[in-house]
Amino acid sequence: MSTPHTSTSRAPGPAAATTAARPAQPNVVLSVHDLNTTFAAGSRTSNVVRGVSFDLRRGQTLMLLGESGSGKSVTARSIMRLYGRNATITGSVRLSGQELLDLSADRMRGVRGARIALVPQDPTGSLDPLRRIGAQITEVLALHNVERLRRAGRRQAEELLRLVGINDPKRVADSYPHELSGGMRQRAVIAIAVSCDPEVLIADEPTTALDVTVQKQILELFADLQDRLGMATLMVTHDVGVAAEAGDRVGVMYAGRLVEEGPAAQVFASPRHPYTAGLLAALPSPGVPRGTLRSIPGSPPPAGAFPAGCAFAPRCPVARDSCRTDDPPLVAVAPDRSVACPVVNPASPSAPPSTPTAGAVDIPSPAAPPADQPSALSKGGPR
Ligand SMILES: Nc1ncnc2c1ncn2[C@@H]1O[C@H](COP(=O)(O)OP(=O)(O)OP(=O)(O)O)[C@@H](O)[C@H]1O
Ligand code: SF4
Ligand SMILES: [Mg+2]
């Protein structure tokens, strides 16, 4: 892991006034408010995470879903303050009430891996190819001085491997990473991540490199560990199927912003942001006849070149003139749901909370792109 010298601050970022208000909730272990991450390169800066806010409760899995480059990994790594001096992170990240952005680098090192742990996007790269798996697990226990576990040493490493579903933990503990299958390596990385019994586990695309059967096993493992260890999980994915299968809640990201957030079952049954609707319309499933899928035309804007107004406007089937000037805030549209699209969800104080208000615009299925116009979804977006 890189040693972070990140500049952090709780000063409100530019979107502070526009994010949905979040009253304190019971059982919230991770509370992120108005998170902004800006990278500097020479005289240029790019604000790649913009005003992200959400709460994560004990025993809950929140999926961060979006196309490649939408800022999912930067959000996950900013929460853990895993960036160098070229990154400025502002806003608030509270872990069981403790503000992480205020901690010294030393104290943050004590929190990272122990109370909040990361399964990185490339698990193979996070294992030392020259050291046996058992030694890599006991090293983490020693690093965090988990005395009870450290004394148990090797036996504890095998216990952790058994916990993550490895039937022959002795052999795996004695193996080098290259001697294991992709699924086994992923389980070993998860064992390291949960070794200190974290309150929050962040998993960045934990199933992307795995075939579908192993992917299902790993998702079941996360659910099982969450039940047994009582953790909360923040999982990053570009795969709508994974988000629907494993998420209690889903936060849809576009161009560094959360554009829709709510219970996964509700969001997938009735999306209320045109981008979410577009993602679902592009999702193949056995019942959908060939040729009826609709991909979202065009590509997401690159970081640092987000258009004025709503960043989705150039691709949105219901965009209006005002969308190109007004950047819509994420606002509560129902007790448990927030959406950043006032066109589909116009505010009306008198409307019942879960019913679209009068004047709401229906979201049409996105038009099929012309044959010569590639879609981001077909080349790196949700697959
Ligand atoms: N360390 C960095 N310095 C500068 N820019 C960065 C850095 N890390 C990421 N970015 C930029 O931030 C944007 C968001 O990147 P991020 O890795 O969060 O995307 P993502 O949503 O996780 O995509 P993917 O699904 O491809 O992993 C991208 O434009 C990326 O180039
Ligand atoms: S604000 Fe406008 S452009 Fe953005 S998603 Fe809503 S309708 Fe589309
Ligand atoms: Mg990523």
| SSE arrangement, N to C | EEEEHEEHEHHHHHHEHEHEEHHEE
Q: What coarse outline follows from CA principal-axis ratios?
A: globular
Query: How many whole angstroms does the radius of gyration measure?
Result: 21 Å
Strand content: 15-25%
List the ions, cofactors and other small molecules found in this model. adenosine-5'-triphosphate, iron/sulfur cluster, magnesium ion
Distance between the termini: 29 Å
Q: What's the total number of strands?
A: 13
As laid out across the biggest beta sheet, the strand order is 7-8-9-4-10-11-13-12
Number of distinct helices:
12
Overview of this protein structure:
The chain has 383 residues and is α/β, with parallel strands linked by helices. It has a domain at 120-195. Helices cover 27% and strands 21% of the residues. It has twelve helices and 13 strands. The chain has helices at 72-79, 105-111, 123-126, 133-143, 147-152, 154-163, 169-173, 182-194, 212-229, 240-246, 264-269, 274-281, and strands spanning 7-9, 28-41, 44-57, 61-65, 87-95, 98-99, 116-119, 200-204, 232-237, 249-254, 257-263, 331-334, 337-339. The strands form two sheets. Strands 7-8-9-4-10-11-13-12 form an eight-stranded mixed sheet, with helices on both faces. Strands 1, 2, 3, 5 and 6 form a five-stranded mixed sheet that branches. A hairpin with a 2-residue loop joins strand 5 and strand 6. Helix 6 (154-163) crosses helix 8. The longest helix is centred in the middle third of the chain and has 18 residues, at 212-229. It is globular and about 65 Å long. The chain starts with 6 loop residues before the first strand and ends in a 44-residue tail after the last strand. The relative contact order is 0.14. Bound molecules: adenosine-5'-triphosphate, iron/sulfur cluster and magnesium ion. Adenosine-5'-triphosphate binds at residues 39, 48, 66, 68-74, 121, 238, 303.
